[in-house]
Amino acid sequence: MKKHHCGYSLFALAMLTLSASASATDLNVNFTANIRETTCDMKLVGGTGSDTKQTLTIGNGGQVRLDDVKAGTASATFKIVMVECPSSLASLKTTVKGKAAGYLPTGVVNLIPKAEGGADYAAVEIARASTPASPFKVNSTLDAERLVWTATELNNKEVSLVATLRETQANSMTLGDFQTVATFEFSYE
C-alpha cells in the first residue's frame, strides 16, 4: 500500500512540473543524499572450517553425556568477529536462523531424524557467552529476542557466544547423533 502511495506522489510531482513548464515558470528540485557503505565483512572463530562456514563440536570429541545435557554443561564457545565495517556503523543486529524446535523456540533442532540414528527431543541454543541462560529465539527479528550488539561489542569488533545442547522437553531426549545448521543474518544501521 505504501509503495502505491509513494508512486502516486511522484506522479503528482511530475504533473506539477509539466503544468508549471507550460506557463513558463521554472521549477527546480534539488535532492541531497548521503550514500554510505551498508555491509560489514564478518567471520566465525572457534570451530573448524572457513571464516564463513564452521563446524562447532560440543563435548569431548563430539561425545556428550545425557547428564551434561540435562545440566546445561554440554556446550562450546565461539565468536562472531567483524573483519571490516564502515566507520558509519551505528547498530548491528544478528538473527539466528534455522529450523526451530517445536518445544523450545530458542533451540535449533536436530536435522538427523530419529529413524536414522538421531537424538530426538534435542536442540542447540545460542546465547552470549556472558549470559548463557538467555538464549536467542530462532528466526526472531524482535530486538528483545535476537542478538543486538552492545557498544562494547561494536568497539571490540566481536561478540563471544556459546552453543549449548539442550533437551527440548524434560526427560524426553533420546540417545543418538546430533547435527544442525544455524545461520547468522545481520542487519546494519
Describe, in plain words, how this protein is organized in 3D:
The chain has 189 residues and is α+β, with helices and mostly antiparallel strands. It has a single domain, classed as Immunoglobulin-like, CATH 2.60.40.1090. It contains three helices and ten strands; from the N terminus they run αβββαβββββαββ. It has a five-stranded antiparallel β-sheet. A three-stranded antiparallel β-sheet has the order 8-5-10, with no helix packed on it. A hairpin with a 4-residue loop joins strand 2 and strand 3. It is elongated. The two termini are 25 Å apart. 20% of the residues are buried.
Helix content: 10-25%
Gyration radius, to the nearest Å? 24 Å
Q: What is the chain-wise order of helices and strands?
A: HEEEHEEEEEHEE
Shape: elongated
Strand content: 25-35%
How many DSSP helices? Answer: 3
* CATH domain topology: Immunoglobulin-like
CATH superfamily: Fimbrial-type adhesion domain
Give the biggest beta sheet. 5 strands, antiparallel
Indicate how many domains the architecture comprises: 1
Task: Compute the average pLDDT.
Answer: 83
Strand order of the largest sheet: 1-4-9-7-6
- CATH level 1 name: Mainly Beta
Q: How many strand elements?
A: 10
Structural class: alpha+beta
Point out poorly predicted stretches. 1-23
- Named CATH architecture: Sandwich
Distance between the termini: 25 Å
Summarize the structure.
The protein has 3 helices and 10 strands. By secondary structure, it is of the alpha+beta class.
